[in-house]
Write a structure and sequence with these properties.
The protein is an alpha+beta fold. The protein has helices at residues 6-9, 108-115, 118-127, 139-144, 153-192, 207-210, 238-243, 307-324, 335-340, 348-387, 389-401; strands at 2-5, 10-14, 28-30, 47-49, 66-69, 71-72, 80-82, 96-101, 129-130, 135-136, 146-149, 203-206, 211-215, 247-248, 271-274, 282-285, 295-300, 342-345. A hairpin with a 7-residue loop joins strand 15 and strand 16. The radius of gyration is 27 Å and the shape is elongated.
Length: 402
């Protein structure tokens, strides 16, 4: 294993072709910064242009080419994706670097995995230049970064294969979690039909009949004022509701536990509904908490409805509520609108049956999430072990100089 500068193992590192693009699928596909936003080459996020392919042959992506973001926000800077096992003609566009591998010295997938490693991301920080809205680094600085490379290509291939297997297991686990979510949506539609169509002809009632709805409380004080700190209960914000899914199981709050210093207490089991910004998103508390007036609390009438059923009901109605809610210029909905909202009310026994299915599925999903975390930890460990010799080589080099 030895350290070699990136400029020595990639035969070419350059920016892409300057072509005016649009998003309409009409013409030749061209990469954009967004094309590799998720770390893969996303064919749904290409640009297009009515140009002659023949004029840009030098910019065609070839198998093993690695695309890298070098002008972006700091968190996305240095992000990479590899072009492999594809036959489409795609032109390498501006604002992404294309790194072409010298295959005599470097196995492309090994290089790709190193460029995704924490070690490389740490090196990128050292050559990054920040401006007001974005950050960047130049090709000359990139070429000077050293990459640890096994002497034999067979060792590079073995390391890449091991990391690829771990990565595949992670993707499979993510797909399993996504499939469980789809299963619950399908089960809801099978048991209750579409809430918009109500083809099963359930009785439709006002949401207020299924439970009580009250707005949270926000006292008129600066959020970070010292008198707000040290409250007994966490203060839930709208973004937490939007991103938590079915249950809010934990909350690592930003401002310390404000709690009753700024709001009032709501018990676990309360369903939260966002009524400002990204409206009509819901989640269910699994602990006592407080929340501001941008959120409403829904407490179910247990004889009429099950909270889990109402949560899934909102997942189907959210877009309609957002579209038809009053005062849309302010992106908010009032409680009168929510209380009067007509919704299907299937028998409580059927709602409970669905809720039991959800709870069992959520328990399985939690196991999958724990497994996913373990796999991601394993990948991180394998990656560090594969490339840690970089640190050992540098240490030996420093000792020799001393």
């Amino acid at each position: 294993m030895k350290l070699i500068k990136i400029g020595k193992v990639f035969s070419s590192i350059r920016n892409g072709a300057t072509i005016k693009q649009d998003k309409i699928v009409d013409g030749v596909p061209i990469t954009r910064i967004e094309t590799i936003a998720d770390g893969t080459i996303d064919l749904n996020r290409l640009g297009y242009a009515a140009v002659s392919e023949e004029n840009f042959k030098d910019f065609y992506l070839k198998d093993g080419d690695i695309l890298m973001s070098h002008i972006n926000s700091v968190s996305h800077l240095g992000k990479v994706a590899i072009f492999e096992n594809r036959t489409e003609i795609i032109i390498h566009g501006m604002n992404l670097l294309c790194l072409k591998v010298n295959t005599d010295k470097l196995f492309p997938k090994y290089g790709f995995y190193y460029l995704r490693s924490l070690q490389f991301r740490s090196s990128i920080k050292k050559i990054t230049k920040k401006s007001v809205n974005q950050a960047s680094f130049n090709i000359s600085g990139l070429k000077e970064i050293e990459i640890p490379i096994p002497d034999n290509l067979s060792d590079q291939i073995q390391i890449a294969n091991i990391l690829s297997i771990a990565e595949t297991l992670i993707e499979q686990r993510k797909q399993s979690i996504a499939l469980l979510d789809e299963l619950l949506k399908s089960s809801f539609l099978e048991m209750f039909g579409s809430p918009m169509i109500n083809e099963k002809d359930w009785e439709k009632v006002s949401l207020s009949k299924l439970g009580s709805i009250e707005r949270g409380v926000s006292k008129n004080r600066p959020r970070n004022s010292p008198e707000l700190l040290g409250g007994k209960y966490p203060l839930i914000q709208t973004g937490v509701v939007t991103n938590s899914g079915l249950f809010i199981t934990s909350y690592k709050h930003t401002y310390s536990e404000l709690g009753l210093k700024q709001s009032k207490l709501w018990k676990k089991g309360t369903m939260l509904i966002t009524i400002a910004a990204n409206i009509a998103q819901t989640s269910i508390l699994t602990f006592d908490a407080c929340f501001p007036d941008s959120i409403a609390g829904f407490i179910t009438n247990e004889k009429e409805a099950n909270t889990i059923y109402v949560h899934f009901l909102f997942s189907f109605l959210q877009k309609i509520i957002e579209k038809n809610a009053p005062q849309m210029a302010q992106k908010n909905i009032n409680l009168a609108f929510l209380r009067s909202l007509k919704v299907p009310k299937p028998p409580i026994e059927l709602q409970t049956q669905f809720a039991q299915l959800v709870e069992k599925t959520e328990a399985l999903k939690e196991q999958y999430k724990n497994s996913l975390q373990e796999l991601e930890n394993l990948y991180g460990s394998l990656s560090q072990q594969a490339f840690k010799v970089e640190l050992e080589l540098k240490t030996k080099g420093q000792q020799t100089k001393n």
